[in-house]
Amino acid sequence: MKVLVVEDQRRLGLMLKQGLAEAGYCVGFAGTCAAARDALCETSYDAIVLDLGLPDGDGLDLLQQWRKSGFNEPVIILSARDAVQDRIKGLDVGADDYLPKPFSLPELLARLRSLLRRQANVKDTVLEHRGIRLDLVGRTTHYHGAAMDLTSREFALLEIFMQNPGRILTRSLICERVWSSPYEVDANLLDVYMSKLRAKFESRDDKPMFKTVRGVGYKLQ
Ligand code: CA
Prior knowledge:
Layout: E1 2-6, H1 10-22, E2 26-30, H2 33-42, E3 47-51, E4 53-54, E5 57-58, H3 59-68, E6 75-79, H4 84-93, E7 97-100, H5 105-120, E8 126-129, E9 132-135, E10 140-143, E11 146-148, H6 152-163, E12 168-170, H7 171-179, H8 187-200, E13 210-213, E14 217-220
Parallel strand pairs: 1-2, 1-3, 3-6, 6-7
Antiparallel strand pairs: 4-5, 8-9, 9-10, 10-11, 12-14, 13-14
Calcium ion binds at residues 8-9, 51, 53-54.
């Protein structure tokens, strides 16, 4: 699940980014309206956390444009404007929820889960492949019916493979999606995580679950 954070306060933005990543989401980040527009053009997101007071415009205008253009995923407004009429305006423009600042991160995560769960009826949020069953909203993993205990990073990593079975995924693409940047990641970290996944999802037949494509990346077979 990919969440776009639109927030111009750097510290708060980083805190949100980290909190969401620790909860197992892939996080995109934008500090301006322009960056947010670009981000949404480049990638599809499953939800947006939106600040209103942005240096180059108003988050409400952004939201209005997105809704008009057919963007239908959950949007939570996070704003210091907390008067009742502000909330009403935000919800009228198309927000699904409105959280006044200061807010609690666990509450934001809970509201996000709730919105994604509601959306789950419309979208395919349970991925299955070769005995692995990944519930993106419930954040649970099963392998041949047995519940598996995955860390949030392992979950995010497995999610990318489950969304692209049979496709070779490059190391940089995986790192960018799981760790939000191809540069922050130690080169060996991905290999360490891959061996953890391999240990947890040992193949039950001759074909290994994950194939290493030397010098390129990995493939879920
Ligand atoms: Ca702001």
